[in-house]
Protein: Glucanase
Organism: Winogradskya humida
Amino acid sequence: MTPPPSRSPRRTLTRALTVAAAVTLVSGLGVVAATQASAAAGCRVAYSANTWSTGFTGNVTVTNLGDPITNGWTVAWAFAGNQTVTQGWNATITQSAKNVTAVSPTYANSLATNASATFGFNANYSGTNTNPTAFTLNGVACTGSTGTTPPTSSATPSSPPTSPSTPPTTTPPPAGAKVDNPYAGVQGYKNPEWQAKANAEAGGSRVSNNPTAVWLDRIAAIEGTDGSSSNGSMGVRDHLDAALAQGAGYIQFVIYNLPGRDCAALASNGELGPNDLPRYKSEYIDPIAAIQADPKYAALRIINIVEIDSLPNLVTNTSGNAGGTAACDTMKANGGYVQGVGYALNKLGAIGNVYNYVDAAHHGWIGWDSNFLPTANILLQAAQASGSVNNVTGFIVNTANYSALKEQWFGIGTSVNGTSVRQSTWVDWNQYVDELTFAQSFRNQLVAVGFNSSIGMLIDTSRNGWGGSARPTAASTSTDVNTFVNQSRIDRRIHAGNWCNQSGAGLGERPRANPETGIDAYVWVKPPGESDGSSSLIPNDEGKGFDRMCDPTYTGNARNGNSLSGALPNAPISGAWFSAQFQQLMANAYPAL
Ligand code: BGC
C-alpha cells in the first residue's frame, strides 16, 4: 500500500516547504501593568504559525515568569489582519473582531512560576498572515522577563493572595502518566477475526496466536459491520471487550480514514473525499476517542497507529516530484492530512491510557537525504497542530511494506572493488539499506527536530522475512557492485519501490517488545494474508481503486524505476483475505516457523 518514490541525487528535487514553521519569540513591550497588587508578574510567549494558502495552525506557548497562577490564566492578543480562529485546543479560544482570548481549561488552571502551557488553534485568513507580537497573560504584557510590578496603590489589596476556588481536576491525566513503552511487559491482543482466517488455512495455527492490529479503515468499522466488509464485523468496543476477556495488556488499532486517503496510489483510496475533514473529525475520530476513553478500558494500553503513508506523501508525491499526483497536491493545499492527523493526535493523545504512533513510511521512501528531514518536519507540524508533541509516543516504519529488517551481508558503508553499494541500482544513493538502521536513525532525526527524546519506534515485520530457498546464505563474491548487491541482498523484490502483494516475501520477526535500541517493538500491523490490492479491477463499495502496482504484468512507473510490479496474481481488493499470499508468507517465514 505504500507508494515510494525513488529519489536519487541525480534527479533535481525542488522542495519548498510551503507549510513553514515560523517561531516568533515575543518580548519587548515596555508597559507593564499589574492587575494583582503585590504579585510579581511576567511572562513570555512563543508563537508559531504553520501557514498554507488559506489557513494556518497557530501554536502558542506561554511561560509564567511571575508568581504562581492558581485560578486560571488568560492569554490575549490582537491579529493584524483578517485572521479568524475556527477551532482551538488545550484552551478555550474566543475572538471578537481582531482580539483573541485563550482561557485555560478547567483541568489545567494553574501555572507555577516558570511553568509553561501550550495551546493551539486553526484559523482562516486571506492576504498576509502576520504573526502577532504583543501578548498579555492575565492582563499583564508579556515582555519576556519579570516586570517589576509595584503595588498599584498603597491601600490594602482588594483581594487576598489567591487560593484556588476549585481544585484542579485530575482528568485527563498528564502525558507523563503514560508508560514509556506500552509494549513492554504485557501480552498483545489477538484479533479473533484474523485468528479465525489464519486458523482456517492449512498450517495457519502455527502463526495465528500472534497479535495483529485492528484496522479502522472506514466509519462503519467503529460500530462494527454486518460482515460484508473485507475486514470483519467486530467494532471497536467488541475488540476492547475481547481484549479484556483475553487479559491482554495492549491492543493495536490503525487509524486509517483520512479525507482523500492514499493520494499517491489507488488500491487503498477510502470513503472520505478530499474536503471531508469535518466528517473525519466528527464521524470518525470523535466516536473512536469516546470509546477509547471509556473508563471500562482504562487498564488496557490502547495503541493507535496513525494514518499510514499520509504525511510522507505530502513530502514526496506532490507535483514537482517524479510521479507526483494532483490528489496529493490537493491534500497538501487544503491541509486535510496535517489537520486530520493533528486532530486525531490531540483527541486520542488526551486519553491517559492511549498511545499514538505516527506512520513514518520506510527506508525505501524516506531514506534519501532529500526526503529525510522534510518528512521529520512535516510529522512535527502535525504534532504541533495537535497542540503538543507529548501526544506522540513514537513512530512506525515499514507498515504494510516488505523492506528487510536487516541486510545481513552488507551495510551502507560496504564498498565493492572501491565502489560504494550506494551506487548500485538497488540502493540508488539511499542512505540506508534496511529498516532497522533507518528506524534508529530517523528516531534521532525526529528528536532533533523537536520530538521528545523518549519516543520509540515500531517496525512492521509482518511480511519482511524473506526466508526460503531464495535467501542468500553468504555475501556475494562478485567484484561488480550491482551483481554483489543483487546476489547478497535479503530483500528479494524486483525494486525497493514495489509494495503490492510481493512475490517471494515471508513472515518476518514475530511481534515482541524492546528488540533493539530505540525500537519499542516489532509489530504485525498489516495482518498477514490480507491483500494490498486487487490484481485487476474489482468493483466494490469501499472506495478501493485498482492500482496497476498490484498487477503482475505491469512494467512500472517512475516510482519503481519502471520495473515489473512483482505482485502475486489473482489478488482480491485490499484488506480481503488472500489465501495464496498467506501460504507463501508462511513458507518463506524468517525466522522459519
Ligand atoms: C486496506 C484496508 C485494510 C488494511 C489491512 C489496507 O491496504 O486499504 O482496508 O484494512 O489494508 O489489511
Remarks:
- The chain is about 20% helix and 20% strand.
- Residues 13-147 form a domain with the Immunoglobulin-like fold (CATH 2.60.40.290).
- The CA atoms of residues 66 and 285 lie 38 Å apart.
- The radius of gyration is 26 Å.
